[in-house]
């Protein structure tokens, strides 16, 4: 990748260059893996939440071998204690959630405290209103501060809140995330407008490729409640699925149907 821009004008030029390299449509489609449960972040963010719901969430994650549980900061230590002996299941904590407009210092504090309590993954909301205003340097600095506060092996997922962005703004947000060396770009919080759609996921994947970042992954989240929803997102490039319906999705899974759906559903 190119050097990090130092002004909003330099960011705009870089983003424009990336945008010119992003195809108008999907040119190739990822192979759908058979281990779909390992792609699911088992999510519980709708409040109010009772502590025993966290216990159930973690037990379901263990039973179905989900990728992680995704929870509010105040429940991280409880989940980390339950999942202590199952290191393959991550503890994902939201940061700056759901607005994304809080001070960077507050996001850094949330991130550091979450990691201290046992979080292995952080789902942070970028300052998408600033992205819309073209304040790219500020958006980058905000993301980078959290990345530096929680370096690898902590996984950082940046939520764009794509339902509030144009296609060009999704490209801009994805480009900035790639430059900040985060692990995932994520579509939505699920708290602000419609959730994920396949076009957003596709644009994110193609943008990451145009940036030359082959390591960054895509998480689709928000409104994904069925096997059909899940397969459509995976088909266009999502490698993580954030959903509160993970148990039902797994129960409905049939490997033969997965392959059939993967071959038949087109991107719209």
From TrEMBL:
Belongs to the DeoC/FbaB aldolase family. DeoC type 1 subfamily. CDD domains: DeoC (cd00959). Catalyzes a reversible aldol reaction between acetaldehyde and D-glyceraldehyde 3-phosphate to generate 2-deoxy-D-ribose 5-phosphate. It holds the Pfam family DeoC. The lineage of its organism: Eukaryota, Fungi, Dikarya, Ascomycota, Pezizomycotina. It catalyses: 2-deoxy-D-ribose 5-phosphate = D-glyceraldehyde 3-phosphate + acetaldehyde. This is deoxyribose-phosphate aldolase. Keywords: Cytoplasm, Lyase, Schiff base. It comes from Penicillium citrinum. GO terms for cellular component: cytoplasm.
């Amino acid at each position: 990748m190119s050097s990090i821009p130092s002004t909003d004008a330099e960011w705009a030029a870089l983003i424009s260059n990336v945008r010119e390299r992003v195809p108008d449509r999907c040119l190739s489609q990822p192979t759908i893996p058979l281990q779909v449960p390992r792609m699911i972040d088992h999510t519980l963010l709708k409040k109010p939440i009772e502590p025993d719901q966290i216990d159930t969430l973690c037990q379901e994650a263990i039973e179905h071998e989900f990728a992680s549980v995704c929870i509010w900061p105040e429940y991280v230590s409880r989940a980390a204690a339950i999942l202590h002996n199952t290191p393959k299941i991550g503890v994902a904590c939201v940061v700056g959630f759901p607005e994304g407009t809080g001070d960077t210092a507050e996001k850094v504090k949330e991130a550091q405290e979450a990691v201290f309590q046992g979080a292995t993954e952080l789902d942070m909301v970028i300052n998408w209103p600033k992205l819309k205003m073209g304040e790219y340097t500020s958006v980058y600095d905000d993301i980078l501060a959290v990345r530096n506060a929680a370096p690898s092996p902590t996984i950082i997922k940046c939520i764009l809140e794509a339902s509030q962005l144009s296609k060009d703004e999704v490209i801009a947000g994805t480009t900035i995330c790639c430059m900040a060396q985060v692990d995932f770009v994520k579509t939505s919080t699920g708290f602000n407008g419609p959730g994920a759609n396949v076009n957003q996921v596709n644009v994110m994947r193609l943008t990451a490729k145009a940036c030359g970042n082959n390591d960054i992954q895509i998480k689709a989240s928000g409104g994904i409640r069925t096997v059909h929803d899940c397969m459509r997102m995976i088909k266009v490039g999502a490698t993580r699925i954030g959903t509160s319906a993970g148990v039902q999705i797994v129960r409905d899974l049939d490997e033969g149907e997965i392959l059939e759906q993967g071959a038949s559903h087109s991107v719209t």
